[in-house]
Amino acid sequence: MEEDKFALVEKIIKDVHNVLSKIAELYAFDVVPMDNNFQNKSPVLHMENCLGLESWCVKHVYMYCYTELMDKYCMKPNRKSRKLAFGCERLIKLLNVTLLLKPENNSLWNKRRELVLQALLDKTVELHFSRLVLSRKPKCNEAYAYRRWVLDSILQDDTLPVHNIESLVNDEIVICNLASDKCPNNYHSWNHRTWLLNRLTRVKSNFDIDSLFIKEYHFSEKWTSKHVSDFSCFHYYQFCLKNIYSLSDESWKILQSSLNINLRKVLVKLLATNFPKDLTIQASEENLLSYSEENLMKLLLAYANKNCKCVVDYVQLCRKVEILFHSLVLNDELIRFYKHHETLWYHRRFILHEMLMVMYDHFGLVRCKGALVKKSCKVCYFEELRQKQPKIVRYDSNHIYSSVFFNVILTHEKKIIDERRTDGDNFADRHEKYLKFVEALNSVI
């Protein structure tokens, strides 16, 4: 009986290897629930470019392959065993079956890394194999880590054509989309996506990274509007948002045209409805739209750090403010429509923190132990910073609290908190406490 069982396992290993090696279009693998082998045929299933294995044999196949791998290929140095000459083809067959069934074993992925470094496994084939693994286990961190290792080694080639890079990027995005669809809050797939964009910024070819950032910004914005509790995607959305700040002039025009809205109008409308009443500002929406970027930012942030000689890029600053206010307006709509969703309020914290950082950076400030202190510019005072520790000087926060920018944000947040509190949303109170005690605005709220 034991010999028959071993013969069956060997046949299963052979059948799986044949399908993997001959069918290049395979895109999915799964275990098919089947208690017994009633039809007396091979449990390896292949249909419409999908590979399957009947569940009744999984335990026997896995234990057989894993035991042989540990005994013959993953021996510890202090383990006594006779030395045998094994072929790499046998090792690859065992690794394929074992990792398809249980991919969480990092030692087996390391074995595959060794084979890749010895040129015994092709990198493109390895990307295809790990895609099969992720089709069944979309949250397998070890498989994502292996893909990153393979991709990094491929992207290190500076002569790699742009169309090859684009093909790799499209494949990774498709895999991440499928993984995120299968498992909500899939941190590993969104983290892999973040890594990919970060890695592409270091590619030395003429790859258009700005277009990819715009595309991913649109995708994450739409995804978060439909999956309002997917905190992992919101984190990715925030990552894309930060990279939108530094777009080139041409890419910014592409972004504006693709949004189908006028970012300046969104900003101006929110400003006009929240201007502080105690200030003598008689600017209508039409007048504000005629302002240049510099004049609009000087209206909102009247005071500047005069100790610093750096030139302020008002165009870049205005774009950052526009995209942040656009995100704030979108968050307003989602919070009103999807009540009692904690993730939306956490995302709102991110937006407001970014807005406050715009003010602090413009005024040359940093928050230290709950107090605002002056920050020495690393460009203008490089020698002074290099020679000694600069003295920490407390800052009079009246400049910030009296600015139009701050008062608009504060007025708008008070309205939202009161509105949501009236509607019975308990997260409004928690949001108010966050502004008071985390952002240290308790003296003005």
From TrEMBL:
Pfam families: PPTA. InterPro entries: Prenyl_trans_a. Keywords: Prenyltransferase, Repeat, Transferase. GO terms for cellular component: cytoplasm. GO terms for molecular function: protein prenyltransferase activity. PANTHER family: PROTEIN FARNESYLTRANSFERASE ALPHA SUBUNIT/RAB GERANYLGERANYL TRANSFERASE ALPHA SUBUNIT, PROTEIN PRENYLTRANSFERASE ALPHA SUBUNIT REPEAT-CONTAINING PROTEIN 1. Belongs to the protein prenyltransferase subunit alpha family. This is Protein prenyltransferase alpha subunit repeat-containing protein 1. The gene is LOC112046766.
